[in-house]
Amino acid sequence: MTTADTISVTAPADFHVHLRQGALSELVTSHVRLGGFTLAYVMPNLQPPIKNTEEALLYKAQLQAIDPTVEYLMTLYLSPDLTPDEIRKAKHAGVVGKIGRLSVGPVQADNIASTGVKSYPRGVTTNSDGGIESYETYYPIFRAMEEEDMVLNLHGEVPSAPSDPSSNICVLNAEPSFLPHLIKLHAAFPKLRIVLEHATTRAAVECVKSLGDTVACTITAHHLALTVDDWAGQSWNFCKPVAKFPDDRQALRDVIKEGHPRFFLGSDSAPHPPTKKSTSTPSQPCAAGVYTSPILLPLVAHLLESFGALDKLENFTSGFGRAFYQRPSNSARQTKLRRISGRVVEAKWTKGTEEVVPFWAGKEIGWEIVEDE
Ligand SMILES: O=C1C[C@@H](C(=O)O)NC(=O)N1
């Protein structure tokens, strides 16, 4: 429901979020709900990464212990350790509800261990050292995923190669250079549901539009706001993929405004300790990641309104993603926003010794959450 000054969104779902581990996870997991969301599609790039059914179920149980009110959909990290048998096990684990010594808590019929598999090309971002180098090697895995109707989530960048002038790859063209891989994967596995994660370029938007209904694309809140000028020299806005040119940002905005059903929110909210965001050394760049979870729904409402797409908020933050992932929304769960003036984003959130600094700290947002049922 939308009036001039209030909006209700049914069961907002964030289809790409980093909830970390240990004390940092204790701090940031509760921010999913604080930001208005009731579903979190959880990334597996922990240290060590989440690579099998047992680890995914254990991680899910840890997240549920922190905040049981959120639905967590888990992912496995694509690596040579993954096998077609493991794919089948992950898909059907919830039916058993107990893996080895692990009790996974109250089991719903659809409580599968993993909804998707996330592919990180080697070295492109946080904890991607164990990422992949060739997609063909993984075709047996993709075949099993297609049979089991599991989702393949792609970090869509090829690795930068600064020492190789002939390849001419850097952070600005790493995403367009990846798109031939997406096209090839979709042609080889037309029934496999694939999500190109956190698209940042007009080329990516056009490519996904041109492919079949099994290919979708997530868009972050921060890429709707940032361009190159905002992260060059401003480490808090540095993330992977980096924000691109104004025309690329326009393409992201336009596809949301158009209401294209295969483009939906995945925040890629990625918390890092402030010391890792604000400092770099010649051998160690600052950490890649922008943290939006605790302000996410008001921030997305603010941004969509700024380019005339507020009427697309419900579909972008709930309907389209839920349809692609086949996760029906629960109309009893509504997050209500109210227009506000003078609301400034908090400077930081803390718990114990952990601290996180949100995107847009100190800036004004025009919406706040008033009710979250
Ligand atoms: O893909 C990613 C990973 C994320 C992280 O910090 O885990 N940070 C990013 O900026 N992009």
Automatic annotation (TrEMBL):
Keywords: Hydrolase, Metal-binding, Pyrimidine biosynthesis, Zinc. Gene3D superfamilies: Metal-dependent hydrolases. SUPFAM superfamilies: Metallo-dependent hydrolases (SSF51556). One of its GO terms (biological process) is 'de novo' pyrimidine nucleobase biosynthetic process. GO terms for molecular function: dihydroorotase activity; metal ion binding. GO terms for cellular component: cytoplasm. Residues 266-285 are annotated as: Disordered. PROSITE patterns: DIHYDROOROTASE_1 (PS00482), DIHYDROOROTASE_2 (PS00483). InterPro entries: DHOdimr, Dihydroorotase_CS, Metal_Hydrolase. This is Dihydroorotase. It comes from Cristinia sonorae.
